[in-house]
Design brief:
The chain is an alpha/beta fold. The protein contains 17 helices and 16 strands. The strands form four sheets. Strands 1, 2, 3, 4, 5, 6, 7, 8, 9 and 10 form a ten-stranded mixed β-sheet that branches. Helix 8 links the parallel strand 7 and strand 8. It is globular.
């Protein structure tokens, strides 16, 4: 459970920075390439409780050493995201990256996924790796996690708690004592330089014999907030990435100056859209929790239409965090039985810090659709063909300033609209992103409730055979749409069969 607690502490917004001496500079056309040094031994990072070597992957750690730039936007940040940033100051930095890559170069698919580590819990957390590592490992991606923010390296104020967690320099001073982070104002350029290091000639120091063809950025929750700011303000000045997966952002984004306050010229407004003149493809996945907001500003007031470079997937039946993230991610090495996974995908009142008042969201749509979203973005960047647009979730109320958002529900109690999956269209349970607002974890983890036997008998008068026939038809439709992956088909059907019996 302790490892679950450590890896889970990463879900919301921001961390305060510690400033160092700075020097004004002029704008740069592209990010610098930092010095790269390998670090022997095992990295400090909780990524699961199963070994990667039997799956054909190896893990390495490197230090990046260089000079980072901060940015400012004259006139402040508007809600349209069209932020014309300029370079501000520079400061030295030394941070770490963790590389997970196929041991056999022939298994590499040419794409590197670069995650901005989430530091909500006061330490680096690979949130996207936890949700989608199955797809990363089976399809031959290389994965790079970046310690981009000061809280993960030096410590400091985190969103979930004050001066807590296990930052690198406190968790292992002997290994990480030489690291230096000048503050989150510099996190954007630090992340850009990590991408540049992967693309630079002779970058084999990070990837060994692998030659990347595509470098994609990704980040979940508070990291998605920082990526939103990066895309709007920095990406044009520091073009290091070929596409962005912005996962579970709320309505606003991160400040440019590393502060968490709302009254500086570098602080974003409560509602921030992506700039419309995007440089490269952006796919953002929004859960129900993200849309309505809970304790944070909901994405519903930041909605915008898809365009040539933007796709938004609002996924019905999803919560910001769920039981797959809390439990399944730690054991799911791709070899688990359907029975083991079915236990993860059942309503449960057990959260990472103890028992909750209501059952949390099990996480089937979130986990499986996230895997498909990564595949969709990679295919988009490779082919130039964007995924089809999807419908938004339907709100019964909300969308206007000062109003609380709520969902329009179907006859089974699930949200209407959005990206559809068989779990919401052929249900055995009600799945929601709306959790208990009085408990931080429960608010993020949504809720779930098994349908009664009478409800199941009414929905599926032909019993289990009818349920599985209709479920499989909905599953195949989602696969054809690119919202679920064919590799997961049999596993999904097997788990559904087991959970139908459990519901009955």
């Amino acid at each position: 459970m302790q490892s679950s607690i450590e890896a889970l502490r990463g879900v919301l917004l921001a961390a305060a920075g510690m400033m160092m001496a700075v020097t004004p500079i002029a704008a740069s056309a592209k990010p610098a390439v930092p010095a790269i040094a390998p670090v022997a031994g095992k990295p400090n990072l909780v990524m699961g409780s199963f070994p990667l070597a039997p799956i054909g992957y190896q893990t390495e750690e490197f230090f990046l050493d260089g000079t980072a730039t901060s940015y400012r936007v004259p006139g402040g940040l508007g809600g349209d995201g069209a932020w014309n940033a300029t370079a501000a100051e520079t400061a030295p930095f030394k941070t770490r990256v963790v590389v997970i890559r196929p041991s056999d170069p022939a298994k590499f698919n040419g794409t590197v996924l670069v995650e901005w580590f989430n530091v909500t819990g006061g330490q680096d957390t690979p949130a996207d790796w936890m949700v989608a590592h199955r797809e990363i490992l089976r399809r031959g991606y290389a994965y790079v996690g970046v310690s981009a923010q000061v809280v993960g390296v030096e410590g400091g104020q985190a969103a979930m708690q004050q001066s807590s967690g296990r930052p690198l320099k406190r968790s292992n001073p002997e290994r990480y004592g030489s690291l230096v982070h000048p503050g989150d104002a510099y996190s954007f350029d630090i992340y850009a330089q990590a991408g540049a290091a992967l693309k630079a000639p002779g970058a084999s120091g990070l990837l060994g014999p692998l030659a990347p063809k595509r470098v994609l950025a990704m980040g979940e929750s508070q990291s998605a907030a920082f990526l939103t700011t990066y895309i709007n303000a920095v990406d044009r000045l520091a073009p290091a990435y070929d596409g962005f997966f912005v996962h579970s952002r709320f309505g606003s984004s991160a400040s440019l100056d590393g502060t968490r306050g709302a009254n500086t010229p570098s602080s974003p407004p409560a509602h921030v859209r992506f700039r419309t003149d995007l440089r490269v493809p952006v796919l953002t996945l929004i859960t129900e929790t993200d849309l309505i907001g809970g304790r944070l500003t909901g994405y519903h007031a930041s909605r915008q239409p898809d365009n040539r470079k933007l796709r938004v997937w609002e996924v019905a039946g999803t919560a910001h965090a769920d039981n797959y993230m809390f439990q399944g991610a730690f054991i799911d090495d791709g070899q688990r039985s359907a029975a083991e996974l079915a236990r993860v995908f059942q309503p449960s009142k057990m959260g990472p810090f103890g028992k909750l008042d209501q059952s949390i969201n099990p996480g089937m749509p979130h986990h499986y659709v996230t895997q498909a979203a990564i595949a969709a973005l990679d295919g988009w960047v490779k082919s130039g063909r964007a995924p089809a647009s999807t419908q938004p979730l339907v709100l019964a109320s909300g969308g206007k300033e000062g109003t609380e958002a709520s969902f329009a529900l179907d006859g089974n109690g699930n949200a209407r609209g959005g990206l559809r999956t068989p779990w919401t269209d052929v249900p055995t349970m009600r799945l929601s992103g709306k959790g208990d607002p009085n408990n931080f974890i429960a608010m993020l983890a949504g809720s779930s409730e098994l349908l009664s036997k009478a409800e199941l008998d009414k929905l599926y008068p032909g019993g289990k055979a009818e349920y599985l026939r209709r479920f499989t038809a909905a599953l195949d439709a989602a696969i054809r749409a690119g919202h679920l992956l064919r590799e997961d088909r049999q596993e999904i059907i097997d788990v559904a069969a087991i959970n139908y019996d459990a519901a009955k």
